[in-house]
């Protein structure tokens, strides 16, 4: 199903706060603080036709709006340009931008689609094709295709008769669908931790060996290494920029708890302010170390969108109980739209501007 959308005129936006992505070479865009900014958010989610109900916290009754009015400000010496959607549309004219991963990839894909939709000059034409595993938004006047390819592990889960669902750590049968994009943004981690009824596989296959279970960080490392080898062997990085989204944190656990039992009601419940003032010195999570190690060992240039520390502060930015009708519990995994994923895209765009064409 293709949904064609017309875009009405939009009020003007404030110009860039900086013409450069970094004040100096080696600037770390991921260290800094969240600051109040009344010019935010960059768009109104109610005017964006791509936002699924689960991410539209205001429409679902969230009463506070302070979480929308926060801007990521990198540490001294760095300047992060305000996102210029019109410039992005021009720069990526005729190209394909693809997000490959789970629902957190969808979070970032929807965010970028809304940021670009808000920047379209009127009259703008947009073709929206929702689907599974592929959804897309085409900005027709720019021939820019924004694609989401949904996959939970990057590697395969295959149902085998008489055996069950097998997580194959060395298999990526559908990866050919990702070749040809001009910007690829990969993500996986969230589903590797699931157990019990939420687990979507029964066995783990690693080469010629099959296991009932495996240490999840070890399994993640093996699966991500398969992805890395595939990128090195199949992606022409002279024409395709490759990013890894990084580890998006959940806030079910209180930072003061030693136990891994979720906090009652979800610890993001009723949170309306970030956890603290600054990010940058936090301990590295085991899954973060895996991602960094795998990327460092690759022969292809892959940019890490190292979002963990700055996102850990945003305990206020989850849907919580405002994830829509028919959804029980408290969602402290995904992020409201508009909201935190806009900063991920702003930083990614800055990194792209810092890289040479």
Automatic annotation (TrEMBL):
It is a single-pass type II membrane protein. Residues 26-75 form the Trichome birefringence-like N-terminal domain. It is found in: Golgi apparatus membrane. Belongs to the PC-esterase family. TBL subfamily. It comes from Eleusine coracana subsp. coracana. This is Trichome birefringence-like N-terminal domain-containing protein. It comes from the Eukaryota. PANTHER family: OS06G0531400 PROTEIN (PTHR32285:SF44), PROTEIN TRICHOME BIREFRINGENCE-LIKE 9-RELATED (PTHR32285).
């Amino acid at each position: 199903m293709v949904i064609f959308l017309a875009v009405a005129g939009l009020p003007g936006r404030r110009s860039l706060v900086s013409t450069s992505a970094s004040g100096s070479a080696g600037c770390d865009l991921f260290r800094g603080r969240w600051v109040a900014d009344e010019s935010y958010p960059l768009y109104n989610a109610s005017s964006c036709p791509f936002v699924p109900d689960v991410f539209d916290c205001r429409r679902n009754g969230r009463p506070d709006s302070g979480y929308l009015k926060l801007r990521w400000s990198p540490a001294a010496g760095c300047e992060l340009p305000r996102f210029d959607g019109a410039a992005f549309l021009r720069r990526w004219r005729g190209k394909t931008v693809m997000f490959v991963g789970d629902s957190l990839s969808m979070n970032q894909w929807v965010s970028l689609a809304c940021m670009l939709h808000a920047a379209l000059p009127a009259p703008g034409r947009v073709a929206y094709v929702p689907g599974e595993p592929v959804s897309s938004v085409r900005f027709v006047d720019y021939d820019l295709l924004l694609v989401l390819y949904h996959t939970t592990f990057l590697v395969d889960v295959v149902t085998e008769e008489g055996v069950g669902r097998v997580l194959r750590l060395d298999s990526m049968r559908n990866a050919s669908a990702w070749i040809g994009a001009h910007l690829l943004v990969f993500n996986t981690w969230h589903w590797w931790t699931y157990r019990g009824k939420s687990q979507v596989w029964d066995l783990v296959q690693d080469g010629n060996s099959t296991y009932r279970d495996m240490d999840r960080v070890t399994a993640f490392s093996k699966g991500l290494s398969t992805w890395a080898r595939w990128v090195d062997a199949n992606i022409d990085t002279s024409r395709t920029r490759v990013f890894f989204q990084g580890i998006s944190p959940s806030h079910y656990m209180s930072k003061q708890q030693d136990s891994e039992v979720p906090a009652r009601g979800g610890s993001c419940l009723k949170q309306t302010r970030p956890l603290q003032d600054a990010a940058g010195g936090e301990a590295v999570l085991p899954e973060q170390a895996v991602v960094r190690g795998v990327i460092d060992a690759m022969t292809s240039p892959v940019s890490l969108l190292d979002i963990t520390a700055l996102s850990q502060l945003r305990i206020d930015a989850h849907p919580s109980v405002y994830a829509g009708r028919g959804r029980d519990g408290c969602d402290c995994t995904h992020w409201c739209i508009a909201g935190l994923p806009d900063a991920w895209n702003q930083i990614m765009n800055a990194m792209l501007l810092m890289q040479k064409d």
